[in-house]
Every structure is written in structure tokens, then in C-alpha cells.
Amino acid sequence: MIRDTVSEAENDPRNGSAAPGDLSSLTGAADRLCRQQFGDGVFIRGIVEFSNVCARDCLYCGIRGSRRDVDRYVMKPEEVLAAVSAGYAAGLRSFVLQSGEAPVYSVDDFCRLVEAVHTMCGDPVAVTLSVGERSRSEYRRLFDAGADRFLMRFESANSRVYALNHPGCRLEERFEALETLKEIGYETGTGFLIGIPYEEPDDFERNLEALIAFRPHMAGLGPFIPAEGTPAADFPPGSYDKVLEAYSRIRLALPKINLAAATALDSLVPEGRFRALHAGANVYMPNLTPALFRNRYRLYARKTAADAFDGWRQQLETDLSAFDRRPLWNEIGTSLMLEEEKGGRCRESGNGMR
Fold first, then answer.
1. What is the DSSP secondary structure assignment for residue 306, as one 8-state letter?
2. Residue 175, by phi and psi: left (phi above 0), alpha (psi -120 to 50) or beta?
3. pTM for the full predicted model
4. Cα–Cα dist 271/328, whole Å
5. Nearby residues of 180 by Cβ (< 8 Å), 6 or more positions away
6. CB 3.0-4.6 Å disulfide test: which of 30, 139, 151, 258 passes with 189?
């Protein structure tokens, strides 16, 4: 059982003998294990939210397709490249291109954009896509063009809850897409939404089991935050402590995973993302999206613009130092899980095999 595997990791003496239900012991054990793997370094990923156009109608999402009051946008490829260039100049070597689930670029144009990122930067960089479900042939073409990583959360491993929150979508199709990404060779990431509307009592354990069984190379998960103007606006937000518990248990079960501190954590508690770095997270993601578009990518309420990069490299170093961490500038940050799977033979310009 996956649950047994998690419990064994949590109570392994090498991991600090974290007692079940004791969050402090649990996060402490995860923190120690994370430091064993990565030292005090934190991988930095720059996000460019290049479009808020979405064809899906997820109940909780602020940019759901049926909303007519959202100011939609699609960044031009040259605007995306300018944002990446600014991040590269500041020392970033890993970039996430994220959008709603809609093909706002043709496949050819999207491939040219991915190729242009590698060409422009010259030195090895890693490109992560977070654009949802696509066809296998499109995934393949984007990978061949230089897309190294792909992040796609399953949100809930309960098929009933998934269907309620994602009208017209099936959980099985989500996991099929994730398996396809792995088969093609992407460094693959997934995760779930803690406190998602209509969740059932056992869903937290079910979600953890599903994620650990899938064995992603990286994980991105965070709390549900209500968004005004959506059917889920009146549901309570997810628990910050539950997020920390999830991070810790994932780190203990999958020691070599790359685990991102979610931006949404800052909407729950002050310095939420930095605190998560003491619970097993080892990735921090500043926002490179230009100010003209950033405030229009509102997935949830209270999403602040304070996570914008805008040249505050020194401030980030200071903030991380206060939590006994340091940013790993000029590093791609390949998943140790992927390196282990590939025997250390990952390509220099990213993390998939060629």
C-alpha cells in the first residue's frame, strides 16, 4: 500500500522519527531530509503567464472559460521572450510558460517559441510548460522543439470530486495525459488542490497516495483559495497546515523530488512560501509576467502582485537568507529523481533524454 510506504518514511529514524499527527516533527523530518538532498540551496523558476484564455470551466478558477468579466489576453511571442530575457539576465536558467487550457498559439508557433527561448539564451536553460491537456502528437512536437518539463496537476484523485469541479472532464484522461508525458521523456510534475470544493473526508490521503504512486519528478500543490465570481466563491479556503503536511509527507516518501512552494500560500499566511521551505519544499517561483498582464491572471482572490520579479534579486536573497536558504542562480535544477532514472545522462540543455 502507498499509505504504508508513506508511514514508513515518516517514522524512519533517519528522517527524525516524526510522530503521526505532530506537524512540527513531521516538517522537521522533511526539512532535514531535504537538506540532505539539496543542502541550503533553493532552485529558482521564473514563471511567465502568457495567456489567461481558457476553454475549461473549472468551478473554482478565476479565469474559467464562461466568465465574461475577465479581461482576456494573449502575450505575443516577442513579449514572452522579453520576459524570459529579463529573468535570464538576473540569473535564472529555468522558465515556466503557463496559461489557461486553450491553444492560443498554433502548434507550429508554440514550437518556434520554445526553440527561440533556447536560441536566445544560448547557455543551457530548461523550459517547463503548464498548459494542460493536449494531444500526444503536440506533446511530442513540443518536446522535440526543446520543452524539457511539463507541469499538470490532477487536483483531486476522487473521480466524483474531479468531475464536479471540472465539468465535462474525466480524471482518467488527466492521468492518461500525465503518463503520456512521462513516456515521451518530459520531466513531469503534478499535484493537487488542498481543500478543493466538495472534497470527501478521505480525499487528502487519496490524493497523497495517487501522487506518490505516480512518482512525478516534481510536484506543485497548494491550497484552494476562493475566487469571486465563481460557483465556488463561498467555499472555505484550504488549510495551510494541511499544505505543510502534504509537502512534508511527499518529501519523506519521495526524497529526490523537486517540490515547489506555491504562490497561493502567501494568500493564507505572511511569508507562506518561505515557511514552506522548512517543510520539504526546495523550489521558489518568482513571477516574470509583465505588469501589463500580471493582474489579469487572477486564478483566485488575494493573489498579490508582490511575487513579481521586477529585478528584486537582492531582496529575494535577503528573504531566503532569513529562512536559512540561498537561491541557486545560474542553475537549471534538474530533478534528482529524473537523473536517477536516466543514470545521470540528462541532456545539457534540459532534462529530457535525446
1. G
2. alpha
3. 0.90
4. 19
5. 136, 139
6. 151
